[in-house]
Design goal:
Elements lengths: L2 E3 L9 H7 L8 E3 L7 H5 L6 H13 L5 H11 L6 E5 L2 E5 L9 H19 L4 E6 L3 H10 L5 E8 L5 H8 L5 E6 L3 H13 L1 H6 L1 E4 L5 H4 L4 H12 L6 E6 L4 H11 L6 E6 L4 H8 L23 H7 L4 H7 E5 L2 H15 L5 H13 L5 E6 L7 H8 L7 H7 L5 E4 L3 H13 L1
Parallel strand pairs: 4-12, 5-6, 5-8, 6-7, 7-13, 9-10, 9-12, 10-11
Antiparallel strand pairs: 1-2, 3-4
Helix pairs in contact: 3-4, 3-11, 4-5, 5-6, 6-7, 16-17
Length: 436
C-alpha cells in the first residue's frame, strides 16, 4: 500500500516510511492510497466474532500488504489485551468504554499498536534508534509513553503544556524514566504540536536523529482506533440494535473520529456521526459555515479536547474531497461550555449512577439532545473518570475510587525538563540529548 500526503506535494511513501516519518515532507498528513471495502459476509457475521478476530480482519485491510500475516496477527492480539465494551447508560444510549487499557484512556489502542509495528520495522530492517516525538493535551502522552516504555531502540519525548493537564495524567508520563523524556512546555497544546511539526521540517535535526511522531498525525496511531468502532457495531448487533446506529465521538485533534470515518468508508454501517466539542468549537463552526478558522485553544475541564487547530481536519477534508455537503450529510456537531459539561455529568449520575468523565459527557449530551426516536446511540467514554478525580468528585458529590493502576503512577517521582515554546530551545535540547 502506498501513502500520499494531504498536501499532494510529497512523494508517495510505503507504510514503513509513513510510520517512521510521521509527517510528509510537505507538512501534509499521510493517507492510504486506497481504502479497501470489507465484504458483506464480514458484516453479516460480525456479531459472532471476538474483538481480536474483528481487529485482525480490519488490520489486514489496512496493513496486510506490508506486514506478514502472522506478525500482524501477533501485533493486533498483543495490542488488544483488554476489552472495549459497550455498556447501557440511559434509554437508547450506550457507552463505548475505551478506558480498560494500561493507562485507562482510548489512546492505549493506537499507542500500543504503533509501538509494536514500529519495533517490527526496526527489527526487520536493522535501523538505529528511532526518536518518537509526541505532543499531548492529556491522555496521549501517558498512552504513548507506556506503550513504548522499555522498547529497544526507541526513545520517546513527550511534550505537554505546563499546568494544563491533570495531576494524574501528568504522573503517568513524568514518572517513568528509562527511554521516556517528559518535556514541560510553557504554552498550550497547540504550541507543543507546533514544536513537533517544526522538528520534522528541520534539516539539521533530521540529519542527526531519526524522528517520528506518535500523535494521531501518524497513520499507525490513528488507523487502529477504527478497531473498536467495528467491535461496538458487532456488540450492538448482538443486541439487535445496530440498524439505526449513531456514533458520537468527543473530539479534540480529530484522530479518533477520523478513524471511525475510515471504518465507515470500509463499509461499517453506521447511520451517522456526531463530533462533540467542548468550548473549542472550530469544527462545529466549520460544519455550520463551510469555513475553517483555527483559533488559539481555550482551556476547559475537558482538557484533552483543548485544540484550536485540529490536525486531522485535513484528513477529513481529503477523505470527502473537500465537499462540505458530503461531510455535513454524515457528520453533525455539538459544542458545550464547562458549565454544560458539569450539568450533564451531575444529571447523568443522579439519574443513572453512571459516572462520566468530562470528555464523555460531551458525547453523552450530544446524543441526549440529537438522537431520533428510532435511533440507538453509542458515545465514546474516552478516559476513566478517576483521571479527573478532583473535577468529577466535586461535580457529582461522590468519592470515586482510584484504580490500582492509576495509584501506582502517582507514587513515582516527577522527572521532566522545562522549556519555553521557542523552537530553537527545543531543538538544542534534542541535539544535546544526542550528544550525550
Amino acid at each position: 500500500m502506498k501513502y500520499y500526503s494531504t498536501n499532494k506535494k510529497a512523494p508517495l511513501a510505503t507504510l514503513h516510511e509513513a510510520v517512521v516519518k510521521g509527517l510528509a515532507s510537505d507538512r501534509g498528513l499521510y493517507m492510504p492510497a486506497q481504502i479497501k471495502p470489507l465484504p458483506k459476509s464480514f458484516f453479516d457475521n460480525i456479531e459472532k466474532l471476538t474483538f481480536q478476530e474483528i481487529a485482525c480482519t480490519v488490520a489486514d485491510a489496512f496493513f496486510g500488504e506490508d506486514v506478514e500475516s502472522s506478525a500482524l496477527h501477533h501485533i493486533v492480539c498483543d495490542t488488544l489485551q483488554f476489552d472495549c465494551p459497550v455498556v447501557p447508560v440511559d434509554d437508547n444510549i450506550w457507552s463505548l468504554e475505551l478506558f480498560h487499557g494500561p493507562t485507562l484512556a482510548f489512546k492505549d489502542v493506537g499507542a500500543r499498536f504503533m509501538a509494536r509495528l514500529l519495533q517490527y520495522f526496526i527489527k526487520k530492517e536493522g535501523r538505529g534508534q528511532v526518536n518518537v516525538l509526541v505532543a499531548t493535551s492529556g491522555d496521549t502522552g501517558s498512552a504513548v509513553a507506556n506503550g513504548f516504555l522499555g522498547v529497544d531502540d526507541i526513545h520517546v519525548y513527550v511534550l505537554y503544556p505546563k499546568g494544563k493537564v491533570s495531576t494524574i495524567q501528568e504522573s503517568q508520563f513524568t514518572t517513568l524514566g528509562r527511554n521516556i523524556t517528559a518535556i514541560e512546555v510553557d504554552g498550550v497544546f497547540d504550541d507543543c504540536q507546533s514544536l513537533v511539526k517544526n522538528a520534522f521540517m528541520d534539516e539539521e535535526l533530521n540529519r542527526h536523529m531519526m524522528l517520528t511522531s506518535a500523535n494521531s498525525i501518524n497513520v499507525a496511531r490513528f488507523l487502529p482506533q477504527a478497531f473498536y468502532y467495528f467491535n461496538a457495531y458487532a456488540r450492538m448487533k448482538e443486541q439487535g440494535k445496530a440498524d439505526q446506529l449513531v456514533v458520537c465521538v468527543p473530539s479534540g485533534n480529530f484522530g479518533n473520529i477520523t478513524a471511525a470515518l475510515f471504518g465507515h468508508a470500509m463499509g461499517l454501517p453506521i447511520k451517522r456521526f456526531i463530533a462533540a466539542n467542548n468550548a473549542n468549537d472550530i469544527f462545529f463552526n466549520y460544519l455550520l459555515t463551510g469555513i475553517y478558522e483555527p483559533k488559539a485553544s481555550r482551556q476547559t475541564i475537558a482538557n484533552a479536547m483543548d485544540v484550536g487547530d485540529p490536525s486531522n481536519f485535513a484528513r477529513i477534508i481529503d477523505l470527502y474531497g473537500g465537499d462540505h455537503k458530503r461531510i455535513t450529510s454524515l457528520i453533525s456537531g455539538a459544542t458545550y461550555s464547562d458549565d454544560m459539561i458539569r450539568e450533564t455529568m451531575a444529571d447523568c449520575y443522579c439519574r443513572t449512577k453512571y459516572v462520566l468523565d468530562p470528555h464523555g459527557a460531551c458525547g453523552y449530551r450530544a446524543l441526549r439532545e440529537g438522537l431520533k426516536a428510532d435511533e440507538y446511540g453509542v458515545f465514546c467514554e474516552t478516559a476513566h473518570p478517576a483521571k479527573f478525580k478532583e473535577t468529577v468528585d466535586a461535580i457529582i458529590g461522590a468519592d470515586i475510587a482510584i484504580p490500582d493502576r492509576l495509584a501506582e503512577f502517582m507514587k513515582g517521582k516527577k522527572q521532566s525538563v522545562e522549556i519555553s515554546k521557542d523552537f530553537n530551545t527545543f531543538k538544542q535540547l534534542l541535539l544535546t540529548q544526542i550528544v550525550h
